[in-house]
Amino acid sequence: MTTYDPASDGAQMSFDGRMSYGDYLQIDTILNAQSLRTGAHDEMLFIIQHQTSELWMRLALHELDAARRAIAEGAAREAFKMLARVARIFEQLNSAWDVLRTMTPSEYTRFRDGLGQSSGFQSWQYRLIEYAVGNRNLAMLKPHAHRPDLTARLEAELARPSLYDEALRHLARSGLPVPEDVLSRDLRSPWIAHPGVQAVWETVYRAPEQYWEAYELAEKLVDFEDYFRRWRFNHVTTVERVIGFKRGTGGTSGVQYLRRMLEVELFPELWHLRTSL
Ligand code: HEM
Ligand SMILES: N[C@@H](CC(=O)c1ccccc1NC=O)C(=O)O
Questions:
Q1: How far is ligand 1, taken at its centre, from the CA of residue 180, in Å?
Q2: Nearest residue CA, atom 9 of ligand 2?
Q3: Ligand nearest 242 Cα, by number?
Q4: Is 14 contained in some domain?
Q5: What is the CATH number of the domain that holds 133?
Q6: Looking at the whole model, is its pTM more than 0.95?
Q7: Which partner for 125 in 15, 17, 51, 57 could form a disulfide, CB atoms 3.0-4.6 Å apart?
Q8: Which pLDDT tens digit goes with each residue over 218-233?
C-alpha cells in the first residue's frame, strides 16, 4: 500500500509566492516571543499562559467595544451576541487557570526573581477592559506613565461612556426614568451605586415581558460580571497556592490586595436589586 499524498486530493503544497497559514497568522512573530530569562522549566508555561491571556483580552476588548457601539446606536440585539462571546472568552480564561495550577511553589521560586518588578498589575489591556466596562480607578494609570502611547489609550477610554453608561443611556432613550445626574456624570470618576438607577432596573425586572430588551441586556451584563468575578477568584486562589501571602512583584500586599479586588462590583445595582425584588 502506498502512503497517502493529500496533493492527490488537491491540497496546495507549494507556497512560493502564495500566502500561507504562517504568513496570514504571523506565526513566526508569535512563536519568537517567548524569551525565557532563566533556565527554569516552568517559565515557558508562565510566559505562554500570560501571552494567551493577553490575546484573549485583545479579542474581549474588540467585542466589548463593538457591543458598546451597537448599544449606543440603538442596536442592542447585536450587542447581545458580542456580550455572550465576551462571557465565553472569560470562561476560556477561567479554564486556563487549571494549566497554571500545575505549577508548584517550588517550581515558581526557580524563576520568580527573574520577573523583577513586573506584574500583571501592569497589564494595560486588563486595565482597559476594566475602564471600558466601568471600573474606573485613575490611580491605575500610574504604572503606564512611562508609556505615553498606552497612557493616551487609557485616557481616551476614560473620556468615553463605559459599557454601563451606554446601557443606562439606552434605557433613558427607551423612556425609562434614568436620573439626569447619572446621564451627565463625570465619566472619569468611578461608578457609585445609585438608588435611582436601581429603581429603574427594578422596574425592568418586575415586568420583563414589557421591557424585554432592557431585561436581556441586564442579564448579559450580569453574566459577564459573573464570569469576571470567577476570573478574579481563580486568580487569587492560584496566587495563594503559589506564593502564599508574600508581597507581589508589583509591590502590592499580594493576596490581600487581590482579595480586596474581589469586592469590586461592576454593575452594583443589577446585583442589589435581587435583594429587593
Ligand atoms: C503564578 C501565577 C500568578 C501569580 C503568583 C500572580 C500574582 C499576582 C499578584 C501578587 C498580583 C498583585 C499585584 C502585585 O503586587 O504584583 C497580581 C495582579 C495581577 N495579575 Fe497576577 N499572578 C499570577 C498569574 C496571573 C495570570 C496568568 C494573569 C493573566 C493575565 C495575571 C494577571 C494579573 C492582573 C491583571 C493583575 C492586576 C489585578 C488588579 O489590579 O485587579 N496574573 N498577580
Ligand atoms: N505578581 C507575581 C508575578 C506575576 O504573576 C507576573 C509577573 C510578570 C508578568 C505577569 C505576572 N502575572 C500576574 O501578575 C508575583 O508576585 O509573583
A1: 38
A2: 119
A3: 1
A4: no
A5: 1.20.58.480
A6: yes
A7: 57
A8: 999 999 999 999 999 9
